[in-house]
Design brief:
It is a single chain. This protein has 7 helices and 17 strands. The chain is of the alpha+beta class. The protein has one domain (3-326): Deoxyribonuclease I, Chain A. The chain has helices at residues 23-28, 30-41, 84-104, 191-194, 197-210, 230-238, 339-342; strands at residues 3-8, 44-48, 65-68, 112-116, 137-143, 149-158, 165-171, 174-179, 182-188, 218-222, 245-247, 259-261, 285-290, 294-295, 299-302, 316-320, 322-323. Helix 5 (197-210) packs across helix 6. The strands form 4 sheets. Strands 5-6-4-1-16-15 form a 6-stranded mixed sheet, covered by helices on one side.
């Protein structure tokens, strides 16, 4: 059963790509500092797994270290302008996700890991921030009206599963992959859309149309939703109530697997937060799946401070997915249009063209 991962980093939409490659700018961002303050004020310790750098590997033996989350330095400290620091910080954060997946979910590395709000091509000046083998990296970005690529409209996707993982489509706030026979949308829903029900439905309708009318099996990412079940309800409404969507992990009761809090008396305990954002108040980062087509037997969140240093304002989310047991059906290639999709009134007309083009902005 494959594992999918989404980790959003914190970027300012007004900054062009590369604006966060400077460590001083990275730690100066308000929401990252809010996440760091929340962790420090609540006595968080990071359970840091052994890792190999710079490239994540399979599961490593050895004890984990319990590292207190420390306060970020002032962003105006001139000594922070060292190019290697964000590369080490963000790369190590992804390494920690890799190792926690291996330990939490049957020694499985992620089948696909998508970093949102990160435009991180291997050919970037000075090298990529996240060091994974170039052959498994794909950068998808949508340009602004000024023609510049912005971090908050970018996704950097990693997978080493070859033909089992296929890029299908991308647009403003999303990228879609086929994993085996599951259709998975990784999203960073724009703020101007995420709080309005009809705009949110239209957002997911566009995604479905861009994959030839096929309904989504899983949506995972930073939804910016205004309620814990907002995304699930929007998807159900989009498909006319014929499909049931629910959260893979209850966002009201979150314990990040890499966080322990040591009270003055008694054992260490989990952080027990009720949100995925910087102050643990909103369930923005979720995985929503269709119960009729998918099962999600296991999943977990990872904190913003997996190395002991805060790297983001978002929790990372890891979910195991598999095709739900159903009666046998005729197999179709992805490019073939499902009969019900061609006349689905919720999605509108669907073109009966061949396989979807894999061209994208890079």
């Amino acid at each position: 059963m494959p594992v999918i991962v989404y980790q959003s980093f914190n970027s300012a939409g007004s900054k062009v790509v590369g604006g966060s490659s400077n460590y001083a700018k990275l730690v100066a961002q308000r929401f990252t500092r809010d996440a760091n303050k929340y962790a420090v004020d609540n006595g968080h310790n990071a359970l840091v797994m052994p890792e190999t750098t710079p490239v994540p590997s399979g599961p490593l033996q050895g004890p984990a270290n319990l590292v207190p989350v420390t306060a970020l330095p002032s962003g105006n400290n001139p000594s922070l302008n060292e190019c290697a620091q964000p590369r080490s910080l963000m790369g190590s954060h992804v390494n920690q996700i890799w190792q926690h997946c291996s330990r939490e979910i049957g020694q499985q590395a992620p089948a696909i890991l998508v970093c949102g709000e990160l435009h991180d091509p291997a050919e970037a000046s000075g090298g990529a921030l996240v060091a994974l083998p170039d052959k498994v990296r794909r950068v998808v970005s949508e340009p602004s009206r000024a023609g510049k690529y912005l971090n908050n409209q970018a996704f950097t996707c990693f997978s080493d599963k070859g033909p089992l993982v296929e890029f299908l489509a991308s647009g403003n706030g999303y990228v879609v992959y086929r994993l085996h026979d599951l259709l998975i949308a990784f999203v960073h829903v724009p703020n101007e859309i995420s709080k309005d029900n009809q705009k949110t439905i239209s957002f997911y309708r566009e995604i479905s149309r861009n994959i030839q009318g096929r309904p989504l099996d899983v949506v995972i990412g930073d939804t910016n939703q205004k309620g814990q079940n907002f995304t699930a309800r929007a998807l159900q409404e989009l498909y006319g109530g014929t499909r049931t969507y629910e959260n893979a992990i209850d966002p009201a009761h979150i314990n990040t697997v890499d966080t322990l809090i040591g009270p003055r008396n008694g054992p260490y305990r989990g952080d027990g937060r009720s949100g995925t954002n910087a102050k643990a108040t909103e369930a923005f980062d979720v995985a929503v799946y269709c119960r009729e087509t998918v099962s999600c037997p296991r999943g977990f969140y990872i904190s913003q401070s997996s190395t002991g240093t805060t790297a983001s304002d978002h929790l990372g989310i890891c979910v195991e997915v598999e095709r739900a047991s159903t009666k046998p059906t005729l197999k179709r290639k992805f490019g073939d249009v499902a009969p019900q999709a061609a006349t689905d009134p919720n999605l509108g007309p669907v073109s009966k063209r061949g396989k979807f083009s894999l061209d994208t902005h890079q």
